[in-house]
Amino acid sequence: xxxxxxxxxxxxxxxxxxxxxxxxxxxxxxxxxxxxxxxxxxxxxxxxxxxxxxxxxxxxxxxxxxxxxxxxxxxxxxxxxxxxxxxxxxxxxxxxxxxxxxxxxxxxxxxxxxxxxxxxxxxxxxxxxxxxxxxxxxxxxxxxxxxxxxxxxxxxxxxxxxxxxxxxxxxxxxxxxxxxxxxxxxxxxxxxxxxxxxxxxxxxxxxxxxxxxxxxxxxxxxxxxxxxxxxxxxxxxxxxxxxxxxxxxxxxxxxxxxxxxxxxxxxxxxxxxxxxxxxxxxxxxxxxxxxxxxxxxxxxxxxxxxxxxxxxxxxxxxxxxxxxxxxxxxxxxxxxxxxxxxxxxxxxxxxxxxxxxxxxxxxxxxxxxxxxxxxxxxxxxxxxxxxxxxxxxxxxxxxxxxxxxxxxxxxxxxx
Length: 415
Ligand code: ASP
Ligand code: MG
What we know:
Layout: E1 3-8, H1 16-31, E2 35-40, H2 46-57, H3 63-87, E3 92-95, E4 102-104, E5 113-116, H4 119-126, E6 130-134, E7 137-139, E8 145-147, H5 153-163, E9 168-173, E10 194-196, H6 197-205, H7 213-222, E11 226-230, E12 238-241, E13 254-270, H8 275-285, E14 293-297, E15 302-310, H9 314-323, H10 325-328, E16 332-345, H11 355-365, E17 372-376, E18 379-385, H12 389-399
Parallel strand pairs: 1-2, 1-9, 2-6, 3-6, 9-11, 10-12
Antiparallel strand pairs: 4-5, 7-8, 11-12, 13-15, 13-16, 14-15, 16-18, 17-18
């Protein structure tokens, strides 16, 4: 007997019928002899509707009040799911974040989990109860209710699994696993059997919405095995673990993409030692998140710096720069919206040179101009025109053989 944490996302609990189906899934796990903790999201699009309502009343709603509002979504689901379990004769109890002992840092709307006191959950498990916990929420040491950022229920689940020393954390969702790329856009996308923590972390950070990046971070730090799987279908999902044994030969494991990217260029900067630090500390201090950075020196004493931001953050970035124009000391700012970021990710890149070159080749052959590039050990990201985004993803998906079923080449190696 072990502890299993199951997490069900918004779509999976979107209607009463679906909550009843989820209850079945939970009961099956209990029937297998496991102790079960369930983490749920708010039903369907509840969180979006709550945000909408707040915006109708207040153009710049206070983050504290938003947390108070948004946490109600998950509270509805925990009680309904507990009621469904009780109706079926199973012992269950629902807990909000604070009741479950989830302590966060004192930041509203995007708090990190600081600590989990599992006493109460453990007691209930010991009494044979199924514990249903509200995802996405916690409490500060001062007793303020916080949320973990959109999509944060995944993080609640993985953090709880780690704190409870669970055997496994299953993330039930409306897709059957992690795909080589988004199957809604690319017909040949294929479900992966497994993916490493590092690859998943890159994919999640690069726009693959299937898992909250912080959830993957937790899983990696505590070596908690995760499985992303369908709440509707019974087939196996994708396992996220440290060592990926299957499909080892894949150099590129997945392609992530996102649009709504803007490139900002600051011209006429002094080519000095402190220029970079001054511009990016100013942006950071004002909460502007920048992604790819490129510096190009135009003459001996002036330089230009380009960086990419999410288009939603463009106005903030420009305002901050303009406000600090004297201090940063630049001539003008230009920007180009309507861009997208396409990234290839795979641990196999570490030992295989030429992957970036191949990516640029494929894009060039398709007449797609690369505007910015950034790399890490296991990814290459390019910024291109948004119009070419899907075309680029399809071409890369083909070029890196992601559509084909992979055979295990290891068994074919002859000495
Ligand atoms: N309900 C929250 C959201 O929609 C948290 C979650 O579902 O993970 O972002
Ligand atoms: Mg989600």
